Amino acid sequence: MTVRAILGIVALNGAYALLGVALLWAIRGLPRWSDVLRLAGLAYLLGVAAFGVVWTQLLVVGVPLRWLGLVLSLVLGTAAAVGAGVLLGRPRPRGYGDPARHASGAAVLGTATGVALTGLFLEVLFRAARLQGLQAYDAWAFWVPKAKAIYFFGGLDHQVFTTFANPNYPPVVPILDAAAFHAMGSADVTTFHLQYWFLVVGATAAIAGCLYRHVPAWLLWPSLLLVLTVPRVASGLLVPQADVLVDVLFVVAALLLALWLRDGRAWRLAAAAILLAGASLTKREGLLFAAAALLVALVASYGRHRVAWPRLVAVAAVIAAAAVPWRLWYRSNGIGGEGPSAAGAGGSLDRMLDALRLSFDVLFDTTLWSVVPVVALVAVGAALVWGDRRMAAYVAVLLGLVFLGGAWVTYAFRELPITAQESANPIVRYTGAFVLLSAAATPLLLASVWRSGAEERR
């Protein structure tokens, strides 16, 4: 580990954030510097997702990922986004005030306390990331070797990408790792864990920024801190695999879709399209998550389907356009598909019931997830009775589809045993998406219940 390597990682992630801010300015506009600050986490995730999607397409067509190409792609991408913003007439940020929100002293104190406690946790996580070893089996078995292949050979080396385990896994995580190696100046598999620390920081800031205007601080920050510190989530934050990133991209996109159902702002759909495209190229279940989110949004927006449905179809088209080239590449190289070998014939009724039982057992295992799923289900029920019913129905159905997706994976892939052991069945890692979505949606649902109760008390 060297100071140069750390500074390289910092510079690279600063470039992702700058690219994301330019993209967000182009699709939304950022009239105040307070908007830039509030949405910095979302912008960072947009930059990461866009970078991963673009470089997946470039690697598929044979463009090598070298240091110069890395820098040029970030510079040209940022310039193109700024140019688009100029053509669309987006105003430059001015001032820091936020006239839409007049925070009370209690709200300011709650926000300051939440930020301080979260910052303390992230500072401890940073110190752990600086010295984190490469220990997880999947990380050193295929994720990092693929990243090293891109770093040393410049592209999708045929031998590495067709013979290592899970060859049809999408390449965004190896691309991000290879970019980190270039930024550090070497394939330093210790310092590069800082890249995953930046992803955690960006995810936390993105969820907080998206919910800031919709949720009081006393509901937002406890939920975020709880999910960051539950045993299974905390133990996986710095693991150089795709699980955390795909969950984060999906959950933030799902929040944007939920808020879009409420206010109809088109920029939320554009941002969700970029994030879901990134998720589809991060891990195989990213496509399942994207399909579930869009399907639920399609049904929930039925009342204004003439306007909403064509836009959702456009989002689906963007995701498909991003996902298809990688699928064509691995199939053209003789790699099998992502689905079960006998689709629709995963096993008997007994196996289906066992898969459902396993998913329930994993979801409500308090040694893994603490009380996050239980609190989320209570919040959904309360919102269905006293709060925003459309929002509650959207969250409930999406959670249900994600849950059933996990049970289907166990059922359909007959080679997976009915066990929660992670080396044999991915159900625990998969359930992380349900838990993170639960934690992010809970304050939004409870806020709607609180507002409804406040109106009745007046």
Overview in brief:
The protein is an all-alpha fold.
Offer a few descriptive terms.
458 residues, mainly alpha, 2 domains, 75% helix, 0% strand
Walk me through what this model shows.
This protein has about 450 residues and is mainly alpha-helical. The protein has helices spanning about 5-25, 35-40, 40-60, 65-85, 105-130, 135-155, 160-165, 170-185, 195-210, 215-230, 230-235, 245-265, 265-280, 285-300, 305-330, 350-365, 365-370, 370-385, 390-410, 425-455. The protein has 20 helices and no strands. The protein has two domains: about 1-95 and about 110-335, no CATH class; about 340-455, no CATH class. Helix 6 crosses helix 8 (about 170-185). The mean pLDDT is about 90. The protein is globular. Helix content is about 75%, strand content about 0%.
Secondary-structure map:
Layout: H1 3-27, H2 33-38, H3 40-60, H4 67-87, H5 105-130, H6 137-153, H7 158-163, H8 172-184, H9 193-211, H10 217-229, H11 231-236, H12 243-263, H13 266-280, H14 285-300, H15 305-332, H16 349-363, H17 366-369, H18 372-386, H19 389-412, H20 427-457
Helix pairs in contact: 1-3, 1-4, 1-8, 3-8, 3-9, 3-13, 3-15, 5-9, 5-10, 6-8, 9-12, 10-20, 12-13, 12-14, 12-19, 12-20, 13-14, 13-15, 14-15, 14-19, 16-19, 16-20, 18-19, 18-20, 19-20
